[in-house]
Amino acid sequence: MTLPTNLSIINNVIACNTFQCSHNIDPEIKLNMFPFLLLILLSLTWRISASAQPAEEFLRCLSLRFHNSSSIAKLVYTYHNSSYSSVLKSSAQNFRFTTPSTPTPLAIVTPFHASHIQATVYCCRKHGLQVRTRSGGHDFEGLSYTTAYKVPFVVIDLVNLRSVQVNVEKATAWVESGATVGELYYEIARKTRTLAFPAGIGHTVGIGGQLSGGGLGPLFRKYGLASDNVIDARLIDAYGRILDKKSMGEDLFWAIRGGGGGSFGIVLAWKVKLVPVPANVTACTVSKTLEQNATKLVHQWQSIARKFPKEIQSSIAIARVNSSEDGKMTIQASYGSVFLGSIDELIPLMEEKFPELGLVKEDCLEMSWAESILYGALSIIGLPLETLLNRTQKSALSQTFFKAKSDFVKQPISESGFEGLWPKFYEDEAKSAVMVLVAYGGKMDEIPETEYPYPHRAGNLYSILYVVNWEEEENKNSEKFMNWMRRVYSYMTPYVSKSPREAYVNYRDLDIGTNKFNHDKGSYTEAKVWGLKYFKNNFDKLVYVKTKVDPQNFFKHEQSIPPLF
């Protein structure tokens, strides 16, 4: 018998999963040559070494499951591909998890179709590999592309699944999980100035991650979180089935809208409800230093901002700066707001509600809602809307080294409490640190905390995001920056929520607890430590849903919802 050498025959044989295809290949060749040809494919195309047994088995499995096996070379990257490292780092937003010591995946799969994900789930399940699903790569602890467990895992990178279909007449959109928030905003803005979506200002954040954990943005006091406005979804579960809202059932549909990513399945696409906005909104910024009474103003803001009309979103960014007068270090509080209306409507409102701030017309600009997103994120006026399509824009929370934490405040912090905090911002590690306070109230007070998994609703004055950044050359001393963050977090203990000390799952923080790798009988008890902080009493319902839909705990990571064994 003559051995076939044509690559197209190799591809055809590989594509015939059970030797029942219609290609014109002699049956004897099919049966006798399949092991030989598969070995050629794996050894020549992938150059898998004998020591990489899990990767070899995984790739062999994929080759049998993919309908068009020739596409494997375009969709799957292993250590032996020259572009593996660049693909892995392409949307690794926290550079803390891109160092040589960071565990890396056996393979990265970049699917174009749902069937590619189904095949990957099947093969990972068959060969005992963990799955990490990456949408935009903004998981603060890198859990969408690495692991602290040091176990074999595969990354499913959804970068090729990013279509956005906007229906202006019905005020809805279908958006795939690999799209960024900015790509959704851009498609909306391309069609209308008077519809929006209430997600965050970080336009490089992936839709899949944002909607899985909540989604806090400039419109949330008016319309709720991004996840509150999801009306349908398509999900691949642990068994490879594609489910929509109806077929997945009420409990699972509830869980995926704010219950955290990586626990219940892989959401392919989301149907979201768009919300009305004026053709022009007003964005304002006022900055005050300690010498300009910043401490007293922050103290007053705490009790006032949550009572603002729903149309006003208000936040304060606190950081160290050099004084413009004498060049000495000081603390600056920058008050930002977005108002669904005109400047002429906002100024009288602020004069009535918060006259001490001294807001004047010169502090404000009118622009479209989409333009206000760019202004809020980058503090630059006049950027083209195409900037929303930039997936690699650097910020305090992307394309940098950072550590972050979160808190919720239910009672005003005293002036002396803030005065005790300011010296920490003068420490060396805080040169690129920021603390962001976001006012609650409005729509958030109206939604019961059990309506969705995200429970941080009525009773909160504001949330806090703490971030500290450092440069690549400083990363060898990263622990000193991490310790600075932990000292600040410790200092804030008396002033923030208690029993539990609440946290926001989209600001993931492994310091507050992790699951054991083996997920033994104690895993529920361990998970409850961090689970109550993120989800309060909704945690037990999430565990119930997980037990029902993924009892074998296929989808798991360091802070995934555990099933009850």
Question: Can you put this structure into words, describing what you see?
Answer:
InterPro entries: BBE (IPR012951), FAD-bd_PCMH (IPR016166), FAD-bd_PCMH-like_sf (IPR036318), FAD-bd_PCMH_sub1 (IPR016167), FAD-bd_PCMH_sub2 (IPR016169), Oxid_FAD_bind_N (IPR006094). It is found in: Secreted, Cell wall. Its cofactor is FAD. It comes from Gossypium aridum. By secondary structure, the protein is an alpha+beta fold. It has four domains: 54-157, 2-Layer Sandwich (Uridine Diphospho-n-acetylenolpyruvylglucosamine Reductase, domain 2); 164-276, Uridine Diphospho-n-acetylenolpyruvylglucosamine Reductase, domain 3; 280-369 and 393-492, Vanillyl-alcohol Oxidase, Chain A, domain 3, CATH 3.40.462; 520-564, no CATH class. It has helices spanning 7-15, 27-45, 53-65, 72-75, 84-89, 114-126, 181-191, 207-213, 220-223, 245-256, 294-304, 343-353, 369-378, 415-421, 478-491, 523-535, 538-549; strands at 76-78, 107-109, 130-134, 153-157, 164-167, 172-176, 195-196, 230-236, 242-243, 266-273, 275-276, 281-289, 312-322, 329-339, 364-367, 401-409, 433-439, 462-470. Strand 5 (164-167) and strand 6 form a beta hairpin. Helix 3 (53-65) crosses helix 6 (114-126) and helix 16 (523-535) packs across helix 17. The longest helix has 19 residues, at 27-45. The relative contact order is 0.11.
Question: Secondary-structure blueprint of this entry?
Answer:
Layout: H1 7-15, H2 27-45, H3 53-65, H4 72-75, E1 76-78, H5 84-89, E2 107-109, H6 114-126, E3 130-134, E4 153-157, E5 164-167, E6 172-176, H7 181-191, E7 195-196, H8 207-213, H9 220-223, E8 230-236, E9 242-243, H10 245-256, E10 266-273, E11 275-276, E12 281-289, H11 294-304, E13 312-322, E14 329-339, H12 343-353, E15 364-367, H13 369-378, E16 401-409, H14 415-421, E17 433-439, E18 462-470, H15 478-491, H16 523-535, H17 538-549
Parallel strand pairs: 2-4, 3-4
Antiparallel strand pairs: 1-2, 5-6, 6-10, 7-11, 8-9, 8-10, 12-14, 12-15, 13-14, 13-17, 16-18, 17-18
